[in-house]
Amino acid sequence: MSDASVRPLAVDHRGNALTAFLRRAEERPPGDAPLPLALVALWCGDRVLMVFDRFRQGWELPGGLIEPGESPRQGAVRELLEESGQTPVEPLGFVGYPRFTLAPDQRVEYGALFSGRCAEVAAFQPNEEIEAIRWWDLREVLPGRVHALDACLARLAHGPGLPL
Question: Can you give the pTM of this predicted structure?
Answer without folding.
Answer: 0.92
